[in-house]
Every structure is written in structure tokens, then in C-alpha cells.
Amino acid sequence: MLKIALTGKIGSGKSLAAAYLSDMGITVIDADLVARELSEVGKPVYKEICQHFGTEYLLADGNINRKKLGELIFCDEAQRLALNSITHDAICREIQNRLQVLEHNNHEIAFVEAALLAEAGMQQLFDAIWLITSPRKQIIDRLAIRDGLSYEQAQKRLRSQEIERDLMQLPVVVIENDGSEQAFKEKIISALTEAKSL
After folding, report:
1. What is the pTM of this model?
2. Which ranges of 122-180 does DSSP label H, i.e. alpha helix?
């Protein structure tokens, strides 16, 4: 089975690319959703997050207050690294397990949407990488509209997701998201066709 990482900075369009692939019947594992599942109330990752960050980062129902925690880690590098040390190994193991199930079921190709591959130690799971890029100003504008962020907040989030140079150890297909949604979709279809032909 061909395993491809779908990555890019926040606001670049990787989730849109994942949606296009899903619409075409391609399996896409979302690393963020895996992280959410692993940090549900009572699970080991949840307990570690509570021990490190305290109950002030919980909602009234006991779930993690992701908005408040996100605000902390996007402005405090030490806390971001602490959260990553708690979550990354578990996320990587779960994604590897899911890929193995897909391969066992004779899937031809599968994608994993993830922003931070090398930092999470996941790059060894893949045969290739699709790197979604977009002009910086467009990304900041998207974040401001999508997440209701100020220009400064959007910049901080963007800086926290600089793409690691370690990714270049694998074949990288760069897909520029700098035009219309239809043009971007056509680029995704073209890249998929090429990947399947290899």
C-alpha cells in the first residue's frame, strides 16, 4: 500500500485537499482527530495532560478546553513542546496501527493529514509527502476569517508550524494553493493520478 503524508502549514489548504481526496473515495486519517480521540476523558493521554497543565485547562464537563490550551501553546514554546512530548508517541502508534489495518484490507493508497511530521516522529511511516503551500498573506487572511484571529495571533500560529527540513528525506510533491478552489482541486486530482501510476 502506498502511504502518503499530507502536510502543510496551518491555513495552507491541507484539510481542503483531504476533503477532496475523501470525496474521491480515498482514505485519509486525520492526525488531529486521532489526537482528540486519544485525549478523551479517562484515557492515558488525557490523564497526562491533566497532570501537567492542571484542571484550569478543563471545561465544566471534564473535557479538555482545547481553545484555552491552544492559546497557551501557541505563545509558549516550552508548553508546546511539553504537550507534544505527551501526545506524539501515542498519536504515531495509533496512526501506524490504522495504516496496518488498511494495508491488511488491501487498500491501494492511504493518506495521513498531519501538520508536524518530523517533530512527531512520523515521517518514517510514509513513502512520500504531499506538501501543500500557499502565499503567507493568504494563509494569514484565511486564519483571521476562519478562526477569528488578529493578524498577530495568526502570525504566531503560523510560526509554530514551520515545516521541518527533515521532510526532505522523502520524495516531496509540492502543491501550491494560490488560486481558485477548482484550480486547487484539479492539482490534487492530477497529483493523485500520478501517485497511483508509480
Report:
1. 0.84
2. 136-147, 151-159
